[in-house]
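Narrative summary of target 7.
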Amino acid sequence: MSGGLELLSSPPLVILSLVLVGAAGLAVLWFEDERHVRYRRWVEATARRVSRRNDLSWVDRTFLTLAAAVGFTFAVVLAWALGNYGCTPAGPSDLATLVASGQAFLHGGDPFSISACGRTGNPVPAGIASVLLVALGSLGGEPGVLAVLGITSVALIPLLWELGGPARARSTLFALVSFLYLPIVAVQVDGASLAFMPLTLLLALMLARSNWPRAALVGGFLSTGRFPSLFPWLGATGRARGRRWLALLLSLGTFGGVSLATYAVYRGSFLGPVLLEQLTRSHLSLSYWGILQGEGWLQPSLASAIVQAALLLLAVGVVFFRARREIGAVAVVLTVTILLTPFLSYDELIFLLPVALVSPRARGWLWAIGLTGSVNTLLAMRSLSSLGGPNVLSYALDAIFTGLVLGLLFDLAWTELGPEVPGGRGTSEGADAGPGRGGPANEQRQGSVEPEPPENVRSANPPGLRRPSSFNPTRDSPPASPR
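Modeled conformation, tokenized:
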């Protein structure tokens, strides 16, 4: 499958895109910081002049979802006009591969090894749940598959909103304008198809609010679309309290049963591209693996895959027993997955999107991670690689990226694992399926809007400057760390 970065082929365009996206994300983070009072007032005043509204309540789920849909549609139309969705000299494009896979399934063929653009045996790494979705879209040909991918990608925004808690507006807006969303799902078909993984996790987390067994069944089945999503979901089932073992077994049983049934039908063509080949996939990585592979010091192998699996299962076990929130469990395992995988392209960074729900500090880590990965992919690996010789800049960015992911992991481990410490290291944002296991930070159901302050408090605010609680950085920031 092609890389899908054809829209960003000019270095000046790449630099302009990086500056715009980076500035948008940084603007949201700056607004969240309670120290920047003058900046927040300027933003509010500007928003009032533009929207002719007295507050920021218009930045709601509908507005953000429509913005995501418009961004995705614009990029798709532009790519279609430039002819990026057909056959290429390197083989079938991502879209042509997905259409062929979906139509092969509908006609009783093999959707995991397809023929397209005069080439046979093209592997399709997506699992059966993803194949079913693509097959539905392929009824409408290329436009139908693009529509399905668009719905999958855009659906992430309302799901983030529903799970965002009191900070839903700021966390969702950050996700929308970050390096981890539109630059991946709108510009790259492969990135839009990978949106299936965060969609699986966010949908399962939302269902877990009301019914854990149903959430376990849905989470286990949808994880067959992108099998790495199973691990963070298994970690989250530890928060089911009295039903944790039932949720775990239902998730594993559903995933295993559907996978065995798929293997019984398609055999090696399913097992290879979807599971086994993903464990030793190499040649591209934004992390320390890029240095190890680039210099020939270490290549992915069966031994490294066993070590990777053992560490990942260890992380699942830790969060299963120690995580205080579902979103914390998911965030920790997702970060460990990104850190361990030997093949890490820019597209895969969309896996980290649910981490935006954790806290403002986690969103800061995500901004830096996304910026580093974008610069490495779009500049160091592409535009500057033509200079020849060892790509020192790319290696340096690999090292910086690894340090940032480790920083995010340590931060998440400190705030999301272990017993609740009143007034200590707990967090108050993000998704939770219900009251926590002891601790004032989780007494209020996550996702509910904070009550309005008393009238005498509201009257202290200057007229026209009142904003909804989801935009108030001082109300839902994590308590200060005892460190």
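The mean pLDDT is 82.
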